[in-house]
Amino acid sequence: MASEESEACDCSALPPLSPIHLQRLDGRQTYDYRNIKISFGTDYGCCIVELGKTRVLGQVSCELVSPKLNRATEGILFFNLELSQMAAPGFEPGRQSDLLVKLNRLLERCLRNSKCIDTESLCVVAGEKVWQIRVDLHLLNHDGNIVDAASIAAIVALCHFRRPDVSVQGDEITLYALEERDPVPLSIHHMPICVSFAFFQQGTYLLVDPNEREERVMDGLLVIAMNKHREICTVQSSGGIMLLQDQVLRCSKIAGVKVAEITELIQKALENDRRVRKEGGKFGFAESIANQRITAFKMEKAPVDTSDVEEKAEEIIAEADPPSEAVSKPVLWTPGTAQIGEGIESSWGDLEEEDEEDEGGSDEVTILDSVKMETEDQNVGNHIGDDTPIVLSDSEEDEIIILEPGENPKKTRTQANCQQGKVPSKKAIRKKKQQPAD
Amino acid sequence: MAAAPIPGSGPRVARTMLGQVVLPGEELLLPESAGPGAEGSAEQTLRLGSVVRPRARVVCGPGLRRCGDRLLVTKCGRLRHKEPGGGGGGGGGVYWVDSQQKRYVPVKGDHVIGIVTAKSGDLFKVDVGGSEPASLSYLAFEGATKRNRPNVQVGDLIYGQFVVANKDMEPEMVCIDSNGRANGMGVIGQDGLLFKVTLGLIRKLLAPECEIIQEIGKLYPLEIVFGMNGRIWVKARTIQQTLILANVLEACEHMTTEQRKQIFSRLSES
Q1: What is the ipTM of this complex?
Q2: pTM for the full predicted model
Q3: Which of B92, B123, B192, B201 is the most exposed place for a label (fewest CB within 10 A)?
Q4: Domains of chain A, with CATH numbers?
Q5: Greatest extent of chain B over all pairs of C-alpha atoms, in Å
Q6: pLDDT digits (tens, 9 = 90+) for A304-329
Q7: Chain A residues closer than 8 Å to B23 by CB
């Protein structure tokens, strides 16, 4: 596409004039990997793997489905890599490019066909219900070597993932929520990791972990998937170069070393995350989300005018009807057991509510409520003076029953007191008015 | 709009948001800074075309868009403001969003580095990193005539300027200024290295009296071209030095001044 790019890579690929010119663009040595960084999200099974500037987001999800007919006792693994335009403008949205198909196929071979996940353990009821594990990989930024980054992201996400616990009793399958039972990790036999080798000049020069510019001018690519026990899971050679036997052997040796390093890094990252999670701290890229504000969550203050609330409340109280006095007399069944009416509202429930409001700040009491509450309030006030824990009196005047004397001390607030001081006279008048009607 | 405003979703005053992160879709209010009597001193949404207030000339830069009589944010980044040159403040000036992005959108007058991808008739197609390639007439070079064609091959690097850059239209480049002089533009020489950085870094480097450029100039003798489309072409005496320069420039984006000074002093020692 561009001359300057081939020119730039000449320094690594072409036989140089002097050995000092044998340089990779980013100053790495032939067998160097770029820096790998693994971070986790707040959810299980979510991770971001950065390989230099290449970034891949991995997310694992699970679902209960019916198994395939020919494999009744095996769970289903599904891999999906997506190359969005966000990663590089050259990727077309919505179309399966050759590169994407190739990468997806390679990932499937690397992870599913190597049987790194125990699919039998994903079976819930044979032939009826199995877990389908879906691994979604999104390329967030493209700077070459997508395969390696994606394979690391996939295996890290799988290792990090926890599926909900399930129990089977007879025909009944119970699925437990994350709060009910600790979710269970997947059983992972080994961790296959892809290592890419780029070849230039028909295999004269070899580079590990090619970046995007090196990938553009390479002649061939060899991908070796291997686990830390040096078991090769997949080998794929593309680009149509003829490789010699000892070249492939040498690559597999390098891959072994690299895989051991990467596996160690993954285990360290997983261990780190587990520890931080246990301590309950912030973890993963959740850390980078600042506490301050996301504009959408901001609530604006709504000022409430409370200047003339008291007068208004007084007014309303003066106009309002007294609370229903239909509380029936308590029926004493046996000593210690009493029945108050039948399905008629009891007033001691409101007492609690009133308490909370009082503590929250009595200025912001809504006006409608205040009618009821203040009338309640003064009733309470009357009883504080009595200091009797439970009043079960038959007298006509005292018809409100208070069953929660423990709440009373809280009422000694200046405001409550002054209200009590003012209102009782009114109430007394009203009560007297009511008496004849009864 | 009879519905009561939902708390938290209402527009906010731009002046209080300076330096803070804004998100696409947010609505901003500009201070209505006309003299006394103009609907009190309350903050008002920017009204377009209603009353012209010559004293409060507000320019909305990248990342902000006027939509009807509202001012909406279209990019994610920090809100910036520059007082008008005349001083006095009074609510005018330029507002823009400082965002971190890599995708270039052609803007008229920008100097960019493009790669020639095709020759068709009397036009070159130049890839500038935008949504579509720009066109460049072979007559738009210094001294070019119908008979005297410039020597431009597919794959060459072009440093040019946009004369047409509209939405939904093919942008057009030229390599001459209004006097017909090259003025530094044209085909970039053979060697050197082109690399891409974020648009933010380019703006930083092209800012007047940028320290990074001055320090880099002391390091090695070099030739360097910055394109507003996020491309930098650099050439030093040796490939090694070129690579060092490219990597240092790339790394400059996320370094503090002290870190940068350290690296530069270490490089100049070696």
Answers
A1: 0.70
A2: 0.67
A3: B123
A4: 36-290 (3.30.230.70)
A5: 70
A6: 777 777 888 888 888 877 666 555 66
A7: 294-296
